[in-house]
Amino acid sequence: MILSGLIFLPLVFALAICAWPQKNTIRHVALGFSVLEFLFSIAMLQRFDSTTAALQMVEKTAWIERFGISYFIGIDGISLMLVMLTTFLVPIIILASWNSVEEKLKGFFVSLFILQTAMLGTFLAMDAILFYVFWELSLVPMYFMIGIWGGTRRVYATIKFFIFTMSGSILMLLAIIFMMRLTPEVTGGAMSASLLDFYKLQIPFIAGEFFTAQTLLFFAFALAFAIKVPLFPLHTWLPDAHVEAPTPGSVILAGVMLKMGTYGFLRWVLPLFPEATQQYAWIFIALGVIGIIYGALVAMVQPDVKKLVAYSSVSHMGYIIIGLFVMNTYGLNGALYQMLNHGVSTGALFILIGMIYERTHSREISKYGGLASALPIFAIAFVIVTMSSIAVPMTNGFIGEFLILLGAFNYSPWVAALSVTGVVLGAAYMLWMIKRVFFGPAGEIVKNSAHDASHALLDLNIRELAVLAPLIILIFWMGIFPNHFMNYSKASVDYLVKNKMNYTLVINSEAK
Amino acid sequence: MNITFGLSDILLISPLIALFVFSLIPITIKVLRGNVEQSAAATTIEALIGLTLAAGLLIIFGGSGKTAFNGQLVFDGLTQWMGLIAVFSAAGALIMMYENPATKGSQFSELIFLAMNAIVGMLILVSAVDLLIIFIGLELMSLSLYLMIAMSHEQKISKEAAIKYFVLGSFASAIFLYGISFVFGTAGTINLLDLMDNSAQLIATNKLYLFGISFIVIGFCFKVSIAPFHAWTPDVYQGAPTPLTSFMATAVKTASFAAFLRVIATKSLIGSQNLFDVLQWLAVITMTVGNIAAIMQTNFKRTLAYSSISHSGYILIGVITAGISQNSAFSATSVIFYLIGYGLMTLGSFAIISMIEKNENSIVQTENLAGFAKNQPLLALCLTIFLLSLAGLPPTLGFFGKLYLFSSAVNEGLIWLALWGVINSVISVYYYLRPIVMMYMRDGDCDITDDLSYATIVVTVLAAALILILGLASGPLFQMIERSLT
Predict the structure, then answer these.
(1) pTM of the entire structure?
(2) In sequence order, what DSSP letters do the residues of B393-459 get, joined into one string?
(3) Mean pLDDT of B135-163
(4) Residue B393: its chain A contacts at CB < 8 A?
(5) Which of B333, B399, B417, B438 to mutate to test the interface with A (most CBs of A within 10 A)?
């Protein structure tokens, strides 16, 4: 019942918030709830057995028997850290949005908690239809978050986000239905939507032939996940969504929702369609490389800080895709680690941008300049997070990117060589942005604040420090002691690499 | 032919008798009082009692698989489920009629009389196994509807709709009847069960038989608005008073699809592969035309009319699979299941429009919905659920309906139809999201009218709740339907 509790507790919170009578304490209640959820996930972590690749804490009940669809959830090393990331980020988001979200508070927290349920469900579902239900469910609250609390072009951005994502996933639904039809081969007669039965399928594959079952299914799934990641050239919804989304929306989007795409590759595409993956990996690696360079180059010329970070996401997600598709231990470990890093550091960047936007109501880089003298503590925090984002050693980003590049080098030195340009470009655009915003001659905003008391800039307060402290601690912790985190996923990743051609999962019902 | 009938026949058609008797009560009272109506509430309550009674009798006697009147009417699982869907969605529409400004008022008892008789026609339609009986059911239903639309208090537009519906509907009926005459001329019988036995041979030898069958299919396509025979739908749905639109889009469509399904699923009746190929193309065209046209609409009712056309396309996929499949009970189940979901979400959306309409001539544009979420949070949430369900998003009933429908298509190897279905679902998302944008993301003063009692609100909330509950409990429901069909 632990995992069910983890998934549905936020839903209960959402209902409780609906019924909460006092408007002015609603933030405190929501924060309390989310912290409770995080503590609950820590308790789950204590019971997790990191020595095995087997599926743990499994719950399985028949749901729609006629189609072999069941309520089947479980956790292993691949999903564990993403679950932790989700529960960790939500309280931070609530604390970070303390002043930025003013209106329709109830609706906001209800959306946030339903979104949390959907995201956790996506990571934990082991049944294809259940997975799809949670996957699509996550669209709706995000749609409202961007659409109601977003910026000026929010409606355009949110509809684009919704339609892009749905157009990918609907083909996945068809692919799932098709695979359910194949399952009687391995279950002995009955249809099944269980992922474990899907793993057992030997889906016909003919090398070089495009119109074979496995290749088509591979692309149907891969398209859904590639849009979510987003992989170049399917990324165009992301900058719009990020720029228009309110800070909490951006953080969730960058921190967790993009990871749903990469998680999908890792959990579904790679093990289910091994031959097709091997044959077509080069496409994804090539697109990943293009994404890295393209994202970095476009980020460089953005006048808007938030858009810059959004494009840097495109660039960073390219690394993760490369790490996944090179299919070796380094690559996969790096990719999984980079998912967490990106969640932490890009999440932190969006929170920082939100903080400065609350003060100045501007994200134009050209209006800033000399901010470091006005807001020294803020500047320090921003620089630390930037270091993590551009993968300076001692920070978490370094470990992830280094492992991925190592994996890429094993696959082909050329891929590694091209990807490494992304590191250089990343350093270039981030540092250039830092220079323009924080240093140099005082810009319009800093000048205004000096003359006009109503525009005075205040440095970070206690609440904002409390938001940033856990993130910054995590940046160094993950950078200096990566094993504390990687140990949890090691067994699962090794097992996946070793058995990549005939991957199956076993259920381990006894947790430690 | 030896014609007898006894008590068992009467018991089987007792739902129809109950409906007819109850339809007479309000107008009889009106006549006895010297042309003075009783209160509208009393009329509605009498009608609802009649409908409840009919539903109860349908549950008790309906699903036995027996035939009445020498095999003219059959009461099997299909009859029972389709009948219940039609009766319940009609009940929802009746409640809306009670509160909508375009339908309540001086001639309410006549309107209810006609509506109840339309439902009698629907029950004949869902149970008929004889082509001529199907025709009688179709006409009883349609003629009542023509009148109902024409007698509403709206000004020009509903009269125009009534004429359009009448002319095109009669045309469709004529084609249908023409088809029957060919079938009778070539096969010598118009009973579906008798036709089954010798149709394979007839198709091979007699082209005129195929001609007749095709005309019958075209007649049905008119009634369920399959493109390219859909042209009347948007105008009529938009022009008719909203409760009647809801009545047409849910109950009438369900009953027509029931008969259509029965004709198609009668194995070997339509043994022609060509006809099935044509039907597949019609399904694809219908979905696409409905969705593309819906995107371009600004009137909310007209958008829903086109959305209803595209849903006919989805349902036609299920009907086709039921015709091709060896296990047609499975496909028929998915059709019935889809119609349950479709009925609930369409009824709910129209109920909301009906509540927003201030007087008999008000027009609800999509942009008029601005601000609805602020004034009516609960109803806005309900409409959101309806629209997301229409778009097929989990965990709503609409999603599971599509899942089962497309699974049955994939099971029969009709993957390309399922592919078109899912692509169309994405297209449809665009126009289903627009009202949600208006309600939640734009400022405005949209609100429901003041002089409402709570009846329509109850219907709406109930429909929304059922969409979520039945969505999550869709497995048992599906199995229940399937068991009753086999």
Answers:
(1) 0.93
(2) -TTSHHHHHHHHHHHHHHHTT-HHHHHHHHHHHHHHHHHHHHHHHHHHHS-------SS--SHHHHH
(3) 85
(4) 136-137, 139-140, 166
(5) B399
